[in-house]
Amino acid sequence: MLRWAVIFLVIALVAAVFGFTGIAVAAAGIAKFLFFIFLVACLFLHYRHDGRQKNAITQDRFGRNHVVVRTSQWSHAVLRVLRQNSLM
Fold this sequence. Notes:
Structural class: mainly alpha
Radius of gyration: 20 Å
Oligomer: single chain
């Protein structure tokens, strides 16, 4: 989503340079809208995390430490969508 906001911002800047004010205003409005949706989603994900899902350090049979990341099914779905949209 942030990628699209930046794309529309660049379109708005290029259109403004060439004098297409109507296209520039529309693209800037879309960029601003997408950016605020991105911010709301970030805040939602930040405050949704309640701190219960911590990383655990375990040892294998050779005594080496490994970090085990525990995530919820919801976060797996978000990561899958981001990978499908090639944002990660």
